[in-house]
Amino acid sequence: MSAISRDDVAHLASLSRIAMSDAELDKLAGELDVIVDSIKSVSEVASADVPPTSHPLPLKNVFREDVPGTTLTNEEALSGAPEATDGQFKVPAILGED
What CA–CA distance (Å, rounded) separates 63 from 68? Predict the structure, then answer.
């Protein structure tokens, strides 16, 4: 027996104010019924000794040591800039402000 009927889909479509043709209602009812059956079959296989998971493989974060290294001096960083003022990059105003 079908878990989702055409009338159920029509009711949900009217609640959400979605206009659907008769062909669309029939097609969507069949598709939703397949989804419900798939969920049922997975639920039957799952047992108490199988923990629920969101990923098939365990996730782990990959971190490296936070080791300070050599950094650029202010002059080195600004050496390739088209314009610099007071030790900072100078960029054109984009909002018409000074």
Answer: 15
